[in-house]
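Q&A log
Question type: sequence-to-structure
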Amino acid sequence: MAHSTDDPSRPLQARKRAVIKTLGYRLLMVAITIVVAWAVIGDARAAIDIGLVANVVKTGTYYGYERLWDRISWGVFA
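Response status: OK
Response body:
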């Protein structure tokens, strides 16, 4: 469903699309972390643990980072 891009208050994509893209990206990052950890340590179970824990920590850290930036007015146009 196309819509005009003249209205800056309307998002350019549906929320469902954004959620699916985000989840797909996170899954890709988990897979990359697991492969790298496996290549470095040579233990598949430990690599999976590292991949999962690292990405949970990264996701939580990013959320906190974004919340912190919400409190900084620099570069925000009203």
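Response note: Residues 30 and 51 are 5 Å apart (CA to CA).
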